[in-house]
Amino acid sequence: MKQIMKIIIGILCIAVVGFVVSSALKSDYRKKHEGHGFDYMNGFSTTDFRGYHVYDGEKLAALDHAPEFMINDPDEMPVLDGAEACYPLYCAAAKTLYQNIGEIEAGTSKEKCNGRIVQFTNTVYAYERLVDRENDIVFAARPSASQKEIAKSKIEQICTVPIAKEAFVFFVQKDNPIDNLTSEQIRAIYHGDITNWKEVGGKNEKILAYQRPEDSGSQVMMKYFMGDTELKEPETYEYIGGMGDVIRRVAQYADENGAMGYTFKYFLTGLQQEKNVKIISIDGIEPTAENIRNGSYPAVANVVMAYLASNENPNVQKMIDFMLSEDGQYLVEKTGYAPLGEKAEVRIENELPPLNIYTNENGQLTTAEETYILKWKGTEYRGEFYYYGNMMDDKNLCDRYSLSFRRNEEPYEIILQMNGNRLIVTGYLGGDKYSTVVTAPPFDDLPATGTEFVLQ
Q1: What is the DSSP letter of 49?
Q2: Are strands 137-140 and 338-339 parallel, antiparallel or unpaired?
Q3: What is the pLDDT of residues 185-218, one digit of tens each?
């Protein structure tokens, strides 16, 4: 019996030790591959941006003369957001054009750097916030396919204007003997066809080809670079979230034997995001300033200013005009990007879904699939447009629809009846009256019951 107990205890000890070692290894792997771990800039930054903010901007590019115009009223200043690599550029623009922006944002937390007007949430969230009208201009690479679809689903069109050129670069460890790869070799590596450096003239060593998170600026550009060649599944790490869920994240580049990664050149040369690495040439062409400017480097990307076609702030266009002017291109070059050097063309990034436009002398209701925009007496409402059911009026069985919206964090619904080519407001749900449709609007800036919108 004692012998059996010893065996059981021994097995349990081995299991505990194995669990501890496994957990430690997983924790170490996560720490190594989750990024650079700066605990500010909303938790999204991988770069130390001290000196690049509008309130401590000693590292920002600046003009040696006053700009041709400045925006004095904070309420008229377009809210800026964007990619991590673009943060020093749009902070320089804001510092130049926004009167007293340093003082306005002086109360910004130096740990979070999410100001009232000059913000940072990275490419993924910046585009989400653009479509939700939480910012006015995004400085980044062009939006991804999924970001375009989100805009389309919310009846918005994203417009982009190129303002600078940048090199999309691939990098390896400094002691890796490989200095150049062809475009096709890179695609084969990231497709999974080439897995060892010896296949491209290097060491007999496994290639650890790291990717970037989905919808990040670098990952969007990588998909453009890959063309019709599909990316293999990225390396990931797992950890347990706050609710006990297993969360999978894309593993970030780490300085390991055989490692390879990609990013925009400014990250490496301007912000020194990675250490102990070297940039390789593509097809024998290095990403020099001249090769970026003349387009001979095979992976040149545009930095764009993205905005919504529906944005009515006239200063958005003024900001674009400035960035394309001689002064704006000076800031571009001094920040570390290549000037555009060509005529800038506006690109409409996404089509709109089929629209139904209903009008009233006091406003307009636009519906598209399951989304709507209601403009009424100077107020704009957005939300879901969906079938609410049917009801019998005096003569006929009528279809009813609902427009959902939120105000002060409370949910509300506008109930409408469809009658031929008209939508008629029949009541409201919301607040403590959610169980019953009431006739009185909860707010004065909503259409009264009985208001008719006619299909155009």
Answers
A1: -
A2: unpaired
A3: 999 999 999 999 999 999 999 998 888 877 777 8
Distances (CA, A) of 338 to 139, 254, 292, 388: 15, 28, 7, 54
Residue with tokens 């307009």: 364
**Collapsing DSSP states into helix, strand and coil, what is residue 10?**
helix
User: Distance between alpha carbon 452 and the CA centroid of its chain, in Å?
Assistant: 39
Chain centre distance of CA 313: 21
CATH (domain of 189):
3.40.190.10
3-state helix, strand, coil in the chain (%, to 5): 30, 30, 40
Q: Same structural domain for residues 401 and 438?
A: yes
Query: How many angstroms separate the CA atoms of 159 and 338, rounded?
Result: 22
How far apart CA 70 and CA 67 sit, in angstroms, is: 7
What pTM did the predictor assign?
0.81
Which token pair is 379?
């107020």
Cα–Cα distance, 372 to 367 (Å, whole number): 4
Contact 169, 288 (CB under 8 A): no
Taking the CA atoms of 63, 64, 69 and 73 in sequence, report the sign of the dihedral they define. positive
Q: Which domain holds residue 235?
A: 166-301
Q: Which two tokens stand for residue 283?
A: 């097809």
DSSP per-residue letters across 65-85: S--S--B--GGGSPPEEE-GG
The reply to whether 54 and 155 lie within a common domain is yes
**Residue 320 and residue 295 share a domain:** no
Residue range 99-147, pLDDT digits in tens? 999 999 886 654 445 688 998 888 888 999 999 999 999 999 999 899 9
> Where are the alpha helices (H) located in 56-195, listed in sequence order?
87-97, 101-104, 122-131, 145-153, 183-191
Q: What is the DSSP string of 359-389?
A: EETTEEEEEETTEEEEEETTEEEEEEEEEEE
d(CA 336, CA 268): 11
